[in-house]
Design brief:
The two termini are about 55 Å apart. With about 130 residues, the protein is mainly alpha-helical. Helix 3 runs antiparallel to helix 5. Strands 1-2 form a two-stranded antiparallel sheet.
Length: about 130
């Protein structure tokens, strides 16, 4: 935005210039409730009270999802770090080995396949139920 337009916007008011402010009629406040039924509310506070518990349960679900994905990613990174340390120290030798043999050796050492993918598959199964 060039300085002249910015000056004019400040004179007129930034809210008006950028159309950040609008008036909304509160005479007809019809909203879908948690059962997807249209309901009419008289006051905004009624809408907030109605949906408070519903939003709280969805916040809890989202928090549990984020905690789960972060734990799975943490486990994946721990496996990667352990792999690198074992490779650098010489405990784990991967050169001149077939892929199947290498995968079997990693399983014997306690490495998980892909914790993030396993966690997501578990979530998909639970969602299908």
């Amino acid at each position: 935005m060039d300085p002249e337009k910015l000056m004019q916007a400040e004179i007129d008011g930034l809210h008006k210039f950028f159309k950040l402010q609008a008036t909304v009629s509160t005479t007809s406040m019809c909203v879908f409730d948690e059962n997807v039924v249209m309901r009419k509310f008289e006051h905004v506070e009624e809408i907030l009270k109605e949906f408070y518990a519903l939003r709280l349960t969805f916040y809890e679900k989202r928090k549990a999802y984020l905690e789960g994905i972060l734990n799975a990613e943490s486990l994946k990174l721990s496996n990667q770090a352990r792999f690198i340390l074992e490779k650098c120290s010489g405990e784990l030798v991967i050169e001149n080995k077939k892929k199947k043999v290498m995968i079997e050796e990693l399983r014997k050492r306690g490495y998980e396949e892909d914790p993030v993918r396993q966690w997501k598959m578990k979530q998909d199964k639970e969602a299908a139920l």
